[in-house]
Amino acid sequence: MDNGLGKQIRDVNKGILIIDLIAAILIVFLSNSPKEMLTGLLFGSIIAMLNFRLLAISLQKSVTCPPTKAQIYSTSRYIIRMTIVGVVLFVSAKSPHISVIGTTIGLLSTKFSILGKRVVVDKLKRKEA
């Protein structure tokens, strides 16, 4: 894997861990069932990190393919990643020990990490200008 891509993946994963820490603190103080919520948060976050890595690998590989093969490859990998998310949510919904809400927050933590980093970078650029 490219060093730049690996660094971006590590940065997003660090952001996910920071968001999870903040969410875990809020869950402990605000939730009626913190154990199930924290389990769901951990479950969703681990899958989100793995899913983001799968996305990076598939994008890196699809760039080297011809356009028609790249489209087929990217689409098939997208379906696989969304199937994984569906299975995770299904398992979370069926298990009494895992909160669906916690799992959903964990799965969305990648998006929160990227958006949060973008907001911070934009604010720093505005202060410099």
From TrEMBL:
Q: Where in the cell is it found?
A: Cell membrane
Transmembrane parts of this sequence:
12-31, 37-57, 78-94
* Species: Paraclostridium benzoelyticum
Q: In the UniProt record, does the keyword Cell membrane occur?
A: yes
- Predominant location category: membrane
Question: Membrane among the record's keywords?
Answer: yes
Q: What is this protein called?
A: ATP synthase subunit I
Q: Which UniProt keywords apply?
A: Cell membrane, Membrane, Transmembrane, Transmembrane helix
Bilayer topology: Multi-pass membrane protein
Q: Which GO terms describe its cellular component?
A: plasma membrane
Database matches in Pfam families: ATP-synt_I (PF03899)
